[in-house]
Design a protein that fits this description.
2 copies of one chain form a homodimer.
Chain A: H1 3-13, E1 17-19, E2 22-32, E3 38-44, H2 46-55, E4 59-62, E5 67-70, E6 79-86, E7 92-99, E8 114-117, E9 120-123, H3 131-134
Parallel strand pairs in A: 2-7
Antiparallel strand pairs in A: 1-2, 2-3, 4-5, 6-7, 8-9
Chain lengths: ~140, ~140
């Protein structure tokens, strides 16, 4: 069966949101398939979602750069899809992935590397790469 | 120290988004503090975040009903905050919570109860309450 036909039941279930003036976006939450750590969140447009499902590698739509974005295109820190889930409202997807290196452009495994404590934010994540060496 | 003063370093770090025409929103991802299951995602405005931190109980801003929303106000299925994390961009928060009952208004523990398979969506979550009995 063509991918387009296979994906029809999915797209029939999905509803998009408009974020910062950009129409047609779905929210993606990304979780490590092994440790269950939440690694990051980002938005996808229809093309990013199609490419993700076609290739098995996470693609997003960057709302700051306003363009399609293959995660790891600069850093090599790609994310391989293991499982994908859709939420009850159909506007959010949960991807369980195998993360190469770190998900965060600041050098951490997860983008959620700061915990909220009584007097502010405390870094609790472990830095696993040097962003200055990876993003040249 | 006043809560307002304690929260200043947090709000200095945060950036809001405009979603479906509603300004001033942060994205919240909610994870079970025990099982690490991702339970749901929703938006918060500043007041919802303040109330969540003041009370230790999750509050959101409903983009469909356009009002502040205490999770569990109808169902009793409240979420107690265990830990909170902020992402690198400061526009998303991750809450690890103790979930009473189920997070999903359809009766499932997690809103991500449908897995994407080759031919469509398959229900993989366990239904733990009857929404018709809970939301009257």
């Amino acid at each position: 069966m063509q991918l387009e036909m296979r994906m029809k039941p999915l797209f029939d279930e999905l509803k998009t949101r408009t974020v910062d003036g950009i129409q047609g976006l779905y929210l993606a939450i990304v979780q490590d398939s092994g440790s269950a750590e939440v690694l990051m969140t980002a938005f996808m447009n229809r093309r990013a979602l199609e490419l993700t499902l076609e290739t098995g590698i996470m693609h997003y739509y960057s709302t700051s750069r306003r363009r399609l974005w293959k995660k790891g295109e600069s850093s090599g820190n790609i994310q391989e899809v293991v499982e994908a889930y859709v939420d009850c409202d159909g506007d959010a997807l949960l991807f369980r992935v195998k993360q190469k290196g770190g998900a965060c452009h600041k050098g951490y495994r997860s983008c959620f590397y700061r915990r909220l404590e009584k007097n502010g934010l405390k870094i609790t994540g472990e830095k696993i790469f040097n962003p200055e060496e990876v993003y040249k």
